[in-house]
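User: Round two. Same drill as before: sequence, then structure, for each protein.

Assistant: Same drill it is. First protein:
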Amino acid sequence: VRDRLQPGDFVYQLLGLPATQTRTALLAVIPKGLDTEEKQLAYVATAMIYTGIAVFVIIMSGVRVVYGRYATDCSWLWGFKINARIAWFLQEVPCVIIGMSNILTANHDVMQSTANTILLALFMAHYVNRALLYPWRTRGSKPTPLSVMLMAWLFCVVNGYMQTRMLTHVKKYEESWFIDPRFGIGVTIFFCGMLINFQSDDILRRLRKPGEVGYKIPRGGMFRFVSGANFLGEIIEWTGFAVASWTLQSAAFAVFTFCNIAPRAYHQRGATLWYRGRLRGWWRRFECSESKRSG
């Protein structure tokens, strides 16, 4: 389909609308002196890195993002709550829509590169799963505040445009990049992270029966070593993508992912230790009561 489309066609313009509108919105906040798209996307990537650092400092200072079990008693200032599945779909789907828009209107010469095609496929495969499959397989997820969903939505709009635009219109890899060690190592790391992510999501999903809510301590897989195995998988995944892509834009994505997720994993570890402490205390009281009865 993409090969048949021409820039002047109505269908071309219609399919390119999500990417075109995103570009227009970004240009409104990007300094006018940046005259090429590569410079413009470099500016966006730099802003993402600084934003990620700010998010890291804020969350580590004790401000918790009110999602999941932390959203139960959050203030009304975070906005009304939305069904978790719908919220997850809405916040992640921009990457799919904008990505497809960039693909269908891509620069034909850029898309001739094998490395471009593979990197684009990795990015799109992740978000097709995250937006179209994952939300409908979750169990017992608590409603998401509107503000949290909108922040995630905004990130996916900006990042989805930046990553797919680089790979479809701006950055063309030479065929030699396909055999470069950085590409091979990066793709391998990406798949390791993806496998950890899939396995962790499956473990978390099996914790609850349909309709069941409440927190349970996950076990097995990488949860044997870390409390937030799903977060670890995501960090590893996009670190691999950054190595394989070797661009400022992909590095910005990896940095932001770490800054946003690592503090949440840290807080989750604290919560897990607290729950384990409660369970041990309950078990000791149970043993004492049983021993008194038998005595």
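Second protein:
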Amino acid sequence: GGNEEFSDPSSPKHQKRNTNKTHSTVAVKTMSSSSSSSPSPPSLKRFLSAHYVFNVIIILLYPLFYIWCVEMKDEETVEKVVNWTKQATYMTGLTLLLKLRRFETLDKFVADCFLHVKSSILLLSFIMDRKVFWIFGSLYYFHYLLCQLREYSGASKAEHLNVASFERRVKIGATKGEETKKWLVMFYAPWHPPCNQFDPTFAQLSLEFSDANDKDSGLTFAKFDLSRWPGGAIDHGIDLTGNSKQLPTLILFDNGGEIERMPRCTKQGVIENRVVFSRANVCERFGLKAERKELKKSK
């Protein structure tokens, strides 16, 4: 008799179990939706790439050469190297502390750490021994050739545009109502380190503020590779040279027209100085948080 009761869908116990399953399913869905509304920050696994790992290995070689110098070199050279190492350590530490005052992104700060530490090591190796100097110089050169910082490949809602899709979707499609009206486009070059350093932050912003499903007021994030389509740099007045201060450039389009950019640039070609590409500054410049609040109210 007990077996028949559990097999009967109309039995009270069976209905109670189904009700509990339904409640647990709803609870799981609620938890998943709440977790998706606040996306996790970019994974720190990106710092395990060859670019970062070999930078650390190169820096860790200096203590080995320092010990070799103390053991093998004459007293005058050892005293000079020890004093210069202390001064370089102090100045590098102070410089990095000052960098924290204008903190942009974690990737940018790590890159600054590598730059200043490696520069100090190159100077110290020159004082230590010319052969050591050439060893570090060669390591820097091969690291630059073989282990360049790559484009961020983590989670992102930023679409990749080319010339045709940019014209069709951002320019023409928005005016015809076929696509979302607003686009925040990152114009970048993968060979330019600041672009790759800002890339994880842009991906995080796209996960948090992208709403491409709403054609009336939604915001779509996108990326445009200027190294593949340099004509885009000419069309939008972006300097594409190696020492450019306009890479990356973020432009907000509304109904196909530009309404804001970062960094700003006048018609005379004067570029906005001291632009900090931090998450907070990007949100403030393009009003991302305010627009998100308005979108939630309208829904």
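The CA atoms of residues 45 and 111 lie 16 Å apart.

User: Perfect.
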